[in-house]
Amino acid sequence: MMKVLFCTGEALKASSRHCRSLVSLCVGYLGEHLEDLIEDIDDIAPAFPFHVKGKLLAIARRRGLLCDELLASLADNSWEILDVSGSDVTDASLIVAAQTCPRLQDVDISRCNKLTPTAVRALVEHCPSLRTLRCGGTPMSDTVARKSISHILPKLNRNEEEDSWEALETKPVAEGAQALRWLVWPGIDANSRERLANECPRIVINPIFSWKTYGVVPRAAQPRVVLDEFLLDDIDPKTWAVVTKVAVRLPKAAVSTTDELKNELSVAEKFRLAFVARDERLAPKRAKNARQNQRRAEKAWLSSDTEAKSHVWAGIARKSLKNLAL
């Protein structure tokens, strides 16, 4: 508590510049005790504003506490950046984050050894504004980045040709990272670099920041810049001084239920459930093929049956006569 009764205006301004805000002090206190909040984060997170969620996620990453529970619970649909580098997050939570945060523009998934190309594909599909992607950093992460190139490269969809406009499904014309411009991948191999340069020269790989590129290369694409650093400008660095590793946990009920089902189901029941799931998955395709076959049969009947042709031409003639009468 400061006594400001006899302070001048200049002194008050100086003290305000060097004193942290009440929000920052509260966030710092929560960050110091973040490991005690993980179990109840699902109930607590909805009460936090979006910028507080971002600060807590950045603190958790620095403390080694960033896990699936925190990422899935703190993700907010207003976020434009996401930095999970060096954490233990898996595909499950990153897919949830991509679905929750469709406005993401800058993402750092470097040194995340538990991620697979499935997570990268989800980012590309659900975040159309993605412009900067940081990946690699470890042998495992480099391998994932290499396998994810096919998901990153923009390309046109090759959909099955339909017989009529009514049956044409509304699908995106293109897929891949349409807005991606900057790719930060320090350990990129020669083959991957050549493939990216040939198929999508628009993507700049490992941009070099200098006075010539000042104002051209964004802050998020500069390797030396920590992506979420600006979120903690007003937070005491002592908040993340203690690093604690927390293992990724699944709900106990879900784990026990899954184990019980695995033990109870017989081989025949597993085959039956797999067949039912496959049948349900292919049902829309069968209905679509049936409609196509019906339309083709109707066209063939009209082209081969003389009586059907006469009915069709008679109908066309009647419509023409009505139009002339009008």
Describe what you observe in this structure.
This protein is mainly alpha-helical and 326 residues long. The strands form two sheets. A five-stranded parallel β-sheet has the order 1-2-3-6-7. Strands 4-5 form a two-stranded antiparallel ribbon. About 5% of the residues have low confidence. The longest helix has 38 residues. It has two domains: 215 residues, Leucine-rich repeat, LRR (right-handed beta-alpha superhelix) (Alpha-Beta Horseshoe); 57 residues, no CATH class. Helix 5 packs parallel to helix 6 and helix 12 crosses helix 13. The protein is 49% helix and 6% strand. It is built from 13 helices and seven strands.
What is the fold's blueprint, element by element?
Blueprint: H1 9-18, H2 22-32, H3 41-44, H4 50-63, H5 68-74, E1 81-83, H6 91-100, E2 106-108, H7 117-126, E3 132-134, H8 139-147, H9 149-152, E4 155-156, E5 174-175, E6 182-184, H10 190-199, E7 204-205, H11 252-264, H12 267-304, H13 306-325
Parallel strand pairs: 1-2, 2-3, 3-6, 6-7
Antiparallel strand pairs: 4-5
GO biological process, one term: SCF-dependent proteasomal ubiquitin-dependent protein catabolic process
InterPro entries: Leu-rich_rpt_Cys-con_subtyp (IPR006553), LRR_dom_sf (IPR032675)
